[in-house]
Design goal:
Largest sheet: 2 strands, antiparallel
Strand order of the largest sheet: 1-2
Order of helices and strands: HHHHHHHHHHHHHHHHHHHEE
Distance between the termini: 61 Å
Structural class: mainly alpha
CATH class of the largest domain: Mainly Alpha
CATH topology of the largest domain: Na+/H+ antiporter like fold
Strand content: under 5%
Number of domains: 2
Shape: globular
Radius of gyration: 22 Å
Number of strands: 2
């Protein structure tokens, strides 16, 4: 029995991985990002496609081809050592996505040097706040008008959609850095740094929006103050962790030990926020820990970066296949034209926010257009929190005007935003970088256009 189970799991893993690699290579052949192939694989082998074909195909074929349903179910407290654990409410797939996200953020931190960060400080700060704020506000207003909801409920729509995707942005920006695109003006670093803070603000404001609909304004006022507190504590603890790890690991000759200890350290930092509700922005903490290691011990950062770059090749497949696997095409259809209009208006507002943030910077118009396109893709955050509202409604924790129907609309727009913006943004970054950015050569910077 166990042998059959292991054989089925291994064959399923090989088939899904093989399909993902084949579709990724096909995408690269036609000059599209490989992550689109991974997303498409997830849609093909995911739970919603399985539910459609389940009555038609034989059981043995279903178990071999499609991802098992249990990986999308909550783990449960019996399998996790902490009582009332936040992780126990997550599925296996969600935990794998979190691990992949940690790897992404580690790579981002190890790719940001101090001088670059100082140079892009003001525009990075503005880009981390203004685009998301404009998008969330306009989406909230338009959604409340389209669906005849109170504006306070529209804010949930706004903030669940507004966050950019580190899973799409970070790997592509690191690739551009390696290739020299935009390095003269530190454009990849600008986008990396601002995207990280953008996510923290969006997630925190989403929590505030939920709380506004539960308890009202007075009890949530302190949550607004928590945003700078979370960011500052995240930076402080991340830099502190990076300092400790750089000193501890500086004399360690085993690359494997360095990687394992570093990964455990930043994962523990993330768990402090997730499991113990510490008021820290752990996503920024992870990035700042890598940044600190790079600043103090560049050779150690290079060792860590080379290993995590290889680990990312497997994590990337897992992350985007699992994101695609949770895309319900029926929900995409239910969002309809109104959903597309809302998302499009939000993207226009976000692009305007990027443009306003870069006024007075040294970037020319081509580079500003590239920054606007780079800030479009959404995937990771929407996949993580898109279903939160409907779950709270079903648990009678959250009261919305139309109950479950409003929760389904929020989830539908989250899924639609992934389907529309992840391919659009990823493709735009890959195709426009050689046309809009200068490439730094060994002895000169030349415009590739």
């Amino acid at each position: 029995m166990y042998i059959d189970l292991v054989a089925t799991v291994l064959s399923n893993l090989c088939l899904v991985t093989g399909l993902a690699i084949c579709l990724a290579k096909l995408c690269k052949r036609i000059n599209l990002p490989s992550l689109l192939g991974f997303l498409l694989t997830g849609v093909i082998v995911g739970q919603y496609t399985r539910s459609i074909l389940d009555p038609i195909l034989p059981n043995w074929l279903i178990s071999w081809v499609f991802l098992p349903t249990y990986i999308f179910e909550p783990i449960g407290t019996a399998q996790w050592p902490f009582s009332n654990s936040e992780l126990s409410s997550l599925s296996h797939a969600a935990i794998v996505r979190k691990i992949a996200l940690i790897i992404i953020l580690i790579r981002a931190g190890l790719g940001i040097d101090r001088q670059s960060l100082i140079r892009i400080g003001r525009p990075a700060l503005q880009m981390s706040i203004l685009p998301g704020l404009l998008e969330a506000t306009l989406v909230a207003y338009v959604a409340s008008q389209f669906f005849r909801l109170p504006l306070v409920e529209g804010l949930i729509f706004g903030w669940v959609i507004s966050a950019v995707s580190p899973a799409v942005i970070v790997p592509q920006m690191l690739t551009l850095k390696d290739q020299g695109y935009g390095q003269i003006k530190q454009i990849p670093t600008l986008i990396l740094a601002s995207a990280a803070v953008d996510d923290v603000i969006a997630i925190t404001m989403f929590d505030i929006s939920i709380n506004l609909n539960v308890d009202g304004l007075p009890s949530t006022a302190f949550l607004f103050l928590s945003i700078p507190v979370r960011i500052i504590l995240g930076l402080f603890m991340g830099c502190g962790l990076g300092y400790i790890l750089s000193r501890v690991l500086a004399q360690q000759h085993s690359h494997l030990v360095c990687v394992i200890v570093f990964f455990i350290g930043v994962t523990a930092l993330h768990l402090l926020e997730l499991e113990f509700n510490w008021p820290i922005a752990s996503l920024i903490g992870i990035i700042s820990s890598g940044f600190t290691v790079l600043s103090l011990t560049p050779y150690l950062a290079q060792q860590l970066s080379s290993v995590f770059n290889q680990v990312w090749k497997a994590a990337e497949i897992a992350l985007f296949v699992l994101i695609g696997a949770e895309v319900d095409l029926a929900l995409v259809g239910s969002a309809g034209v109104s959903g597309l209009v809302i998302i499009s208006i939000g993207l226009i507002a976000r692009s305007l926010g990027v443009f306003l943030s870069l006024i007075g910077s040294e970037l020319n118009w081509k580079e500003r257009v590239f920054c606007q396109m780079s800030f479009l893709p959404k995937a990771t955050v929407q996949a993580a929190i898109g279903g939160t509202a409907i779950a709270l409604v079903e648990n009678n924790t959250l009261n919305l005007t139309n109950g479950v129907e409003t929760g389904q609309l929020i989830l539908a727009l989250s899924v639609l935003s992934i389907v529309v913006t992840a391919p659009l943004g990823a493709t735009a970054i890959q195709l426009l970088a050689p046309r809009l950015l200068y490439r730094r050569q060994k002895n000169s910077a030349t415009n590739l256009e």
